Amino acid sequence: MPYIIGNAAGTVWNYLNENGETTATKIAKETKLDTKLIQRAIGWLSAEGKLTFSQKGRSEVISLKLDV
User: Fold this and answer.
1) Alpha carbon 50 to chain centroid, angstroms
2) 5, exposed or middle or buried, with CB in 10 Å at 0-12, 13-18, 19+?
3) Residues 55, 4: Cα–Cα separation, whole Å
4) Which among 9, 30, 42, 56 is most buried, taking Cβ atoms within 10 Å?
């Protein structure tokens, strides 16, 4: 299972890198990955400190953390 989640985390990272900030729902729709797997991948990337989260209206958006 960690291998599957790790691959999904790579897919999520690549999607955000190419498309910028977006919602978890849109990532799932565009990548065709299962919603639960997307959430696990987001958790993985978040634990590694690679994501930022913000509110835009009623939606939570996810983006890659910029290295400063």
Assistant:
1) 9
2) middle
3) 29
4) 9
Which residue(s) pair with 60 in the sheet?
Answer: 55
**Residue whose entry in the numeric block shows the structure tokens 């190419």:** 18
Place of tokens 């797997």: 37
User: pLDDT tens across 50-63, in order?
Assistant: 999 999 999 999 99
Give this prediction's pTM.
0.91
DSSP β-bridge partners for residue 64: 51
**Per CATH, which fold does 2-64 belong to?**
Arc Repressor Mutant, subunit A (1.10.10)
Distances (CA, A) of 16 to 1, 6, 23, 31: 23, 15, 10, 11
